[in-house]
Write a structure and sequence with these properties.
The complex is a heterodimer of chains A (about 300) and B (about 425).
Chain A: H1 8-22, H2 24-47, H3 50-64, H4 67-82, H5 86-116, H6 118-133, H7 136-147, H8 151-175, H9 179-187, H10 192-221, H11 223-228, H12 234-243, H13 247-272, H14 281-289
Helix pairs in contact in A: 2-5, 2-8, 3-4, 4-13, 5-6, 5-8, 5-10, 5-12, 6-8, 7-8, 8-10, 9-10, 10-13, 12-13
Chain B: E1 6-15, H1 19-27, E2 40-50, E3 55-59, H2 66-73, E4 81-86, E5 89-90, H3 96-105, E6 107-110, H4 122-126, H5 128-133, H6 137-150, H7 166-179, E7 184-188, H8 196-213, E8 216-221, H9 224-230, E9 233-238, E10 241-246, H10 248-253, H11 258-265, H12 268-272, H13 275-278, E11 286-288, H14 292-303, E12 307-311, E13 317-322, H15 323-332, E14 347-349, H16 358-363, E15 368-371, E16 377-381, H17 383-390, H18 409-418, H19 423-431
Parallel strand pairs in B: 3-8, 3-9, 6-7, 7-8, 11-12, 14-15
Antiparallel strand pairs in B: 1-2, 1-4, 4-5, 9-10, 12-13, 15-16
Helix pairs in contact in B: 6-7, 9-17, 14-15
Classes of the chains: A mainly alpha (about 300), B alpha/beta (about 425).
Subcellular location (chain A): Cell membrane; Membrane
Protein name (chain A): ABC transporter permease subunit
Membrane topology (chain A): Multi-pass membrane protein
Chain lengths: ~300, ~425
């Protein structure tokens, strides 16, 4: 048995080296664009007055969910400010948002393709399993090789880790659309594109939004690992706290991650079910515009059968 | 012969690994079960013509292939073998874009579970086919509102479908199909998801709409009552094959084989319920022999019948008299019905089970007479009542039209007014 060895590791290393050497132009391009977006977003958030940022977050919370959530948002972000993690939190938020947007942009079309093609779905499934179950540190290594230390490998690792639920829930949502409704689209002569846009995507939206919500939560959970790759933010704080056994700093940075997580979760969760958010400003506007319950304020009495 | 609205020629549909081979073997005469290794045959050698303006019902139990057939008529399923012609144009084996065009312009469909778009308002749902046809927004919403009026849903256009009851949602489904303004309407178990009372109401409404619009309707159902009530002609399916095509009367009185016979007979209620359970009061279709021909004629006119039963003083059924005979009596000035009495061809006992009433009911020119042990007329059973009693619903129905066509009311009125023989009336009768 001593001589038996399958050199998968070496193959992988050779593959990584080949990609680095031949696709270097692409990698540096990606690196520049992603890095620019994260920096721009982080700088944008940090250049605004802190009060303005908190007001914007609270306003979003009210518009999409409820005034109670808006108050919770203010309390949470004031707490982040109070423990001195404002700057790092905004950096992490920028990283998570950029990674989540990239992941959504990749995941939703993949999910649509998987829902339409069984073969593609069968191929995609083990790939998604691999992406989800492979320890995140492992693909951090080539990411660092490709993009060097900094925020970009953090974003890349985060995208890979966060992608699968987005793909899966998009596929599930589209496959779960009532087949008779899709059939109705076909029966009235809709093209496949019209059915996707007019029937499948709108009806799958709650499921897709649940996927986006899961995706963002996973992205946030990668914040610490992004810190190991050298991305500025809460992750870096936690890594430093760990290496210096700084309990105080660790707790404060960890708490900030939790607050960000809860905020993003509730916000994106509300996106998936806007109509059921009774307290949200959007819902209130929609209700005011549309007439109330059919039976209460209907313009005509309940219809009799036609003719007679 | 004019071209049929829809014509199916030797349609086959096989799902599975080797559909082509399965069709070949089925054509060679192998039974369905033996070709199971090549695929599941859902439709086997189905041929039929649907004429313009008719309601053609395809009836069968679940798994009989009826839903597959209707989906082949608009190309939602490809035919494995055979051909579908819509107004003489083939829709099998044509490019997808052309098929979509035919679906947009020629064939609309109503679905069992309504299949409305829940995120769109009722009006936007109804306007959906017009949107696909490329009609402008203002125009299609105006049209949608107009069609909603047609199905009795004025003012509901800005609601979401979820705010509507099942029956109303299906009216939206029908409105949507009507909005497409196609001449062919496919209805796939359109009323099966509705509760019985609503279902009956919708069936009546559909007939009223059909009276106005004269579409060609192909209606799928597993419900015998529904098939009989709606269908101008009915195709009965079993295990993928059409076993009989005929008018409701054909199916009822002359079942092509044991299966159809069973379908008509083998309803548990038919063995349990008796004539007395379903009969209606005989008052409107019977007179006593003392009443005389004028009274008999009036009764017939009011009931829109071509004949009435005649009973004696103890309500014993002694015969029937037709409107023509009664008319002659009136013209001759006779005051007794006795000379015009004919024997009642069909009368059943009040304890006979419904199963035994089909043949008499179909042959009887009047609602079937029900007599008790002493031969007294205790009730009548119009055919529709008999059919309704078989189904799960117990909805009451009204009088049915009879097979003989009655003398026009005006002739009767004249005869009644004029008393004895008068020229013009006789002439009119001869002209007829």
């Amino acid at each position: 048995m001593g001589g038996f060895r399958i050199p998968i590791g070496e193959w992988a290393e050779a593959g990584v080296a080949w990609i680095r050497d031949t696709l270097g132009w692409l990698l540096s391009g990606v690196s520049a664009v992603v890095g620019w977006f994260v920096d721009a977003l982080a700088n944008g958030l940090l250049s605004l007055p802190i009060v303005a940022v908190i007001v914007i977050f609270a306003a979003l919370a009210w518009v999409l969910r409820s005034w109670r959530f808006a108050i919770g948002t203010v309390v949470g972000f004031v707490l982040i400010l109070g423990v001195g993690q404002w700057v790092t939190s905004m950096q992490t938020l920028a990283l998570v948002l950029v990674a989540a947007i990239i992941a959504v942009v990749i995941a939703v079309p993949l999910g649509i393709a998987a829902a339409r093609n069984d073969t593609f779905s069968a191929i995609l499934r083990p790939v998604l399993d691999l992406m989800q179950s492979m320890p995140a540190f492992v693909y951090l290594i080539p990411a660092i090789v490709f993009f060097s230390i900094g925020v970009v490998p953090g974003v890349v690792a985060t995208v890979i880790f966060a992608l699968p639920p987005g793909v899966r829930l998009t596929e599930l949502g589209i496959r779960g659309v009532d087949s008779e409704t899709v059939e109705a689209g076909h029966a009235f002569g809709a093209t496949p594109g019209q059915i996707l846009r007019g029937v499948q995507l709108p009806l799958a939206m709650p499921s897709i939004m649940a996927g986006v919500n899961q995706l963002i939560m996973l992205a946030l959970s990668m914040a610490v690992i992004a810190g190991i790759a050298g991305a500025d933010g809460l992750g870096k704080e936690i890594v430093q706290a760990m290496s210096t056994v700084d309990i105080a700093k660790g707790v404060e940075a960890g708490l900030s991650v939790v607050i960000l997580a809860v905020y993003l979760d509730r916000l994106t969760g509300a996106l998936g079910a806007l109509k059921t958010q009774r307290g949200s400003l959007l819902g209130a506007i929609a209700r005011r515009r549309a007439p109330k319950d059919a039976r209460v304020s209907t313009p005509t009495p309940a219809p009799e059968p036609v003719g007679v | 012969m004019t071209t049929a609205a829809v014509e199916a020629k030797n349609l086959f549909k096989v799902f599975g690994r080797n559909p082509g081979q399965a069709v070949k073997r089925l054509k060679a005469g192998e039974p369905r079960d033996q070709v199971r290794d090549a695929g599941t045959a859902a439709v086997i050698d189905a041929s039929f013509r649907v004429e313009r303006g008719e309601i053609f019902v395809i009836m069968g139990l679940s798994g009989s292939g009826k839903s597959t057939i209707i989906r082949m008529l608009n190309g939602l399923h490809d035919a494995t073998g055979g051909e579908v012609l819509v107004h003489g144009e083939p829709i099998t084996g044509i490019p997808a874009a052309k098929l979509r065009g035919i679906r947009r312009e020629r064939i609309a469909m109503v679905f069992q579970h309504f299949a409305l778009l829940p995120h769109r308002t009722v009006a936007a749902n109804v306007a959906y086919p017009l949107e696909l046809q490329g009609v402008g927004k203002a125009e299609r919403l105006a049209k949608a509102e107009e069609i909603l009026g047609l199905v009795g849903l004025e003012g509901w256009g800005d609601k979401l479908p979820s705010a509507l009851s099942g029956g109303m949602q299906q009216r939206v489904g029908i409105a949507r199909a009507l909005a497409a303004d196609t001449d062919i309407l496919l209805m796939d178990e359109a009323f099966s998801a509705l509760d019985p009372l609503i279902r009956r109401e919708m069936q009546e409404q559909l007939l009223e709409l059909q009276h106005k619009l004269q579409k060609t309707i192909i209606f799928i159902t597993h419900d015998l009552n529904e098939a009989m009530f709606l269908g101008d002609r009915i195709a009965v399916m079993r295990d993928g094959r059409i076993v009989q095509i005929g008018t409701p009367e054909d199916i009822l009185t002359d079942p092509a084989n044991d299966y159809v016979e069973q379908f008509v007979q083998d309803v548990d209620r038919a063995r349990v319920l008796t004539a007395a359970n379903v009969m209606e009061r005989p008052g409107s279709v019977s007179v006593t022999d003392a009443a005389g021909p004028r009274r008999a004629l009036r009764t017939m006119r009011d009931a829109r019948m071509a004949a009435v039963y005649v009973t004696d003083r103890s309500r014993k059924l002694i015969g029937m008299v037709s409107d023509r005979d009664a008319l002659k009596l009136v013209r001759r000035g006779e005051s007794s019905l006795a000379s015009a009495l004919r024997p009642v061809p069909q009368a059943v006992g009040q304890d006979d089970v419904l199963m035994d009433l089909f043949v008499p009911a179909a042959e009887s020119p009047l609602p079937l007479a029900v007599t008790d042990a002493e031969g007294r007329l205790v009730g009548v059973i119009p055919r529709i009542t008999l059919l309704t009693a078989l189904g799960p619903s117990t909805t009451e129905t009204t009088e049915i039209p009879v097979i003989l066509d009655p003398v026009p009311g005006s002739v009767i009125d004249e005869a009644l007014a004029g008393g004895a023989v008068d020229g013009p009336a006789t002439e009119k009768e001869e002209v007829r």
